[in-house]
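User: Hi! I have a protein structure encoded as tokens and I'd like to know what sequence might fold into it. I'm fairly new to this, so please keep things simple.
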């Protein structure tokens, strides 16, 4: 056994005394990181001298190009041969543009990029034979779920939730036939599904049409789902969860949401201007700033577009054998007698012509030749979903309705409650204090 211990001891001494090998530091090669070249509108900006500017008053495409040393024949080519892609006469003051110039001493414009809007732009490539084409920036769509309770105005409530004002307009137009947006109440609730557009994932560029909505007015819930009922003509309407069309044959008001109903239909109204004598008011007045567009509340044919007495400038439309409408006190008419107009078409602008104490439109409504109160009329609805489409419609909206139903309303902050105690009688009273 002793000889084995000797061998083990010798091995331990050998290992313990073995010189530790010196590890030389490894040199890490410094590899230069290549910074990606900046690319905009499909061009590498580093290849050009770049000028960003906006169209000024008096600017024209030709002047801008000549100032940047573009040959006149190329300007003519773009102006005459590429009108479909770029109408040089329609560049607008305030629109941004970018000029990519050569980096040599001539600094000659090689590319002109005109921004039609936040997303669409037109490229005029002048490097070889002049060409023009349209293109778009990369757009990302982000779906938003919004739910709220009306506490002030609807637009203010949505604004507080960080929602684009256009969503308020879109919502009011969807429900224009079923809910009077001039008479919304505090406590009305809503849920909305829509997409927001972002350029390069960061720059906000507006909203898409509403994908679905829920609105509870006076305790009555109304769903809204868009659905194309005519695939050839791409006709789309909004329907409730049962397939009933939210659209009526008549809009409730001749101006879009955001203005004040100043005077209702009243056959016993007394007016100070006439010494408080009873002067029947057979119209419904909507106060709005001068120049506000007035729209046709239904399809029809213009029977009058003229000026007469206290009515001032007005338009009258015959919709069918039963209904006609009239729009008074216009600043100017946009249609002529005999024209056929569609629901929502602009037929004139709010003014103060005739007998009026302020800018507004007096909206008059005839049923079988008798003037009636349009806000009290049960107006005919548009056609519901056809039986042949109903099963597909219900299948289509089922997951969307479930998504809407799962969105929770924000719970309003509750007041704190303090309870005082009487030593003999226990709780004496509750006092609520709002933070």
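Assistant: Happy to help. Inverse folding works backwards from shape to sequence: for each of the 435 positions I chose a residue that suits the local structure. Here it is:
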């Amino acid at each position: 056994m002793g000889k084995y211990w000797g061998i083990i001891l010798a091995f331990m001494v050998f290992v313990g005394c073995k010189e530790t090998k010196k590890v030389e530091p490894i040199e890490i090669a410094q590899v230069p990181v290549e910074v990606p070249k900046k690319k905009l509108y499909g061009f590498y900006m580093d290849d050009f001298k770049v000028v960003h500017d906006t169209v000024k008053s008096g600017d024209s495409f030709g002047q801008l190009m000549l100032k940047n040393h573009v040959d006149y024949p190329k300007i003519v080519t773009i102006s005459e041969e590429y009108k479909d892609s770029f109408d040089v006469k329609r560049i607008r003051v305030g629109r941004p543009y970018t000029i990519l110039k050569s980096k040599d001493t001539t600094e000659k414009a090689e590319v002109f990029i005109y921004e039609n809007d936040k997303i669409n732009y037109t490229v005029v490539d002048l490097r070889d034979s002049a060409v023009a084409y349209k293109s778009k920036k990369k757009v990302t769509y982000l779906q938003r779920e919004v739910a709220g309770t009306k506490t002030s105005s609807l637009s203010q409530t949505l604004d507080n939730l960080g929602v684009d004002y256009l969503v308020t307009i879109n919502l009011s137009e969807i429900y224009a036939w079923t809910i009077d947006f001039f008479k919304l109440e505090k406590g009305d609730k809503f849920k909305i599904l829509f997409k927001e557009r972002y350029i390069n994932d960061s720059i906000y560029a507006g909203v898409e049409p509403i994908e679905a909505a829920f609105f509870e007015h006076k305790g009555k819930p109304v769903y809204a789902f868009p659905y194309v009922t005519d695939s050839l003509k791409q006709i789309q309407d909004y329907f409730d969860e049962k397939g009933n069309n939210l659209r009526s044959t008549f809009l409730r008001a001749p101006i879009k949401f955001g203005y004040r109903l100043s005077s209702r239909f009243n056959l016993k109204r007394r007016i100070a201007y006439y010494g408080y004598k009873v002067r029947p008011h057979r119209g419904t007045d909507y106060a709005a700033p001068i120049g506000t567009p007035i729209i046709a509340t239904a399809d029809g044919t213009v029977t009058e577009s003229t000026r007469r007495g206290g009515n001032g400038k007005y338009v009258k439309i015959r919709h069918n054998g039963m209904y006609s409408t009239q729009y008074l006190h216009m600043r100017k008419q946009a249609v002529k007698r005999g024209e056929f107009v569609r629901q929502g078409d602009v037929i004139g602008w709010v003014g103060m012509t005739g007998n009026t104490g302020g800018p507004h439109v007096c909206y008059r409504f005839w049923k079988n030749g008798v003037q009636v109160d349009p806000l009290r009329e049960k107006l005919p609805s548009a056609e519901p979903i056809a039986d042949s489409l109903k099963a597909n419609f219900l299948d289509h909206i089922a997951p969307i309705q479930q998504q809407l139903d799962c969105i929770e309303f924000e719970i309003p902050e509750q007041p704190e409650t303090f309870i005082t105690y009487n030593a003999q009688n226990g709780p004496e009273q509750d006092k609520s204090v709002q933070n």
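A useful reference point when you look it over: Confidence is low (pLDDT under 50) at residues 13-18, 414-435. Feel free to ask if any position seems puzzling.
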